[in-house]
Design goal:
It contains 4 helices and 12 strands, in the order ααααββββββββββββ. It has 386 residues and is of the alpha+beta class. The protein has 2 domains: 210 residues, no CATH class; 137 residues, Glucose Permease (Domain IIA), CATH 2.70.70. The strands form 2 sheets. Strands 1, 4, 5, 6, 7, 8, 9, 10, 11 and 12 form a 10-stranded antiparallel β-sheet that branches. Strand 11 and strand 12 form a beta hairpin. It is elongated and about 115 Å long. The two termini are 67 Å apart.
Length: 386
């Protein structure tokens, strides 16, 4: 077996060390994913047990169903990301294999050239080269020319050997990367299999929960009543804040009432649920929605749709963390299911300024309302057309 050049061995050692670090990171990420999936599975099972025992805290059929929906969406996003990661890995493997074949072919071509040169040098030997340089019959000018041409040959031979060494290094590098990619492919495939298994189980549990609610008329009425009570609690909060005269905000901007069709969207995402009465896709019952659900990834910045003053920024049952902004003229905008606030109660905000970030308990949407004197308005006519 041929001994690799020292520079090649050094690079292989470096690459191996780097790969070990990458493996450690991937392993830690995989363990964290396993822990999260185990927690999700336990949460789903606990929720279903509580519902079956009819002892969910504070009457939370709607909340528990929402939690199941949240977990399902998170798992669907995880499996989608794993699928995309696998596609990227497979594409990279194909590219590295092609590079490997090209490096191997180039190395063989250079190897043949090196062998040919070695054969020539072996046949001529040191004596032959000395004769060319120091032949007694040659003039100093011819000797100088021979020296020049021999020097060029040596430089070319050295470059040939250097090129060969670099091709060997490239080949070893491609082999190492290919090995790492295949290991990663196995890890991601296994992770995706586990995610899909948990997703399937969560789907079965949700179907069981929906079946329970639909089969039990009392539970169905309770679910609808909880949604109405949740909306009523929010309305009471807005009315309470509105009657607090110390919180009244007088704007120096153009009146909010003149901004119909001009307001900024709080986030840029797909509209998942609209305003008004609609039929629940899975339960079949009519439900009332006082705002919009806009699908966005957790951590998305939430923008104030118009300038105003923050009246409320705190957790609120059924809405995660909730922010209410007073825009004057008794107009208010509400932003719910956010994970964190960038502004606090009493802060002034400008149009388009970041006031919060989405993702309460990992949820992938923002709930948004517009109200006047406590009455919910359809936000869509107020927002800019997209």
């Amino acid at each position: 077996m041929k001994k690799l050049p020292s520079v090649c061995l050094l690079l292989i050692c470096c690459l191996t060390g780097f790969a070990s670090g990458a493996f450690a990171d991937a392993s830690a990420e995989l363990e964290a994913s396993q822990r999260r999936l185990a927690e999700i599975q336990k949460q789903i099972e606990d929720s279903l047990r509580e519902l079956r025992a009819k002892r969910s805290a504070a009457g939370s059929l709607a909340d528990e169903l929402a939690r199941l929906d949240d977990e399902l969406r998170r798992l669907e996003n995880a499996t989608r990301r794993s699928r995309e990661e696998l596609q990227e890995i497979e594409a990279r493997i194909a590219k590295v294999q092609q590079e490997l074949e090209e490096s191997q072919a180039a190395r063989l071509r250079l190897q043949n050239k090196v062998r040919q040169r070695l054969a020539v040098l072996y046949k001529s030997g040191e004596v032959g080269l000395a004769k060319v340089l120091l032949g007694a019959t040659e003039s100093p000018r011819v000797i100088a020319e021979n020296h020049f041409y021999l020097s060029r040959m040596v430089r070319q031979d050295r470059q040939l050997v250097d090129d060969y060494r670099q091709r060997v290094i490239d080949l070893e590098k491609n082999l190492l990367e290919l090995e790492q990619l295949r290991k990663k492919q196995v890890e991601v495939t296994e992770r995706r299999r586990r995610e899909q298994a948990v997703l399937a189980r969560a789907g079965r549990q949700k179907r069981a929960l929906l079946g329970e609610i639909k089969a039990d008329e009392t539970s169905l009425h309770k679910y609808v009543a909880e949604l109405r009570a949740k909306a009523a609690r929010l309305g009471e909060l807005v009315n309470k804040l509105e009657t607090d005269e110390e919180q009244i905000y007088t704007t120096t901007l153009a009146p909010f009432s003149e901004q119909k069709g001009r307001l900024l969207w709080p986030v840029d995402g797909r509209l998942r649920a609209g305003f008004g009465t609609s039929r629940h896709a899975e339960l079949g019952t009519l439900i009332e929605n006082n705002g919009l659900e806009i699908a966005v990834p957790a951590g998305t910045p939430v923008k104030a749709v118009w300038g105003g003053k923050v009246l409320y920024a705190s957790p609120f049952r059924g809405y995660g963390k909730l922010m209410i902004i007073d825009h004057g003229e008794k107009y208010y905008s509400l932003y719910a299911q956010v994970a964190e606030f960038s502004k606090q109660s009493g802060d002034l905000v400008s149009p388009g300024e970041t006031v919060a970030r989405t993702g309460f308990e990992g949820r992938d949407f923002l709930y948004f309302e517009v109200r006047r004197s406590g009455k919910p308005l359809d936000p869509l006519p107020w927002l800019k057309s997209r």
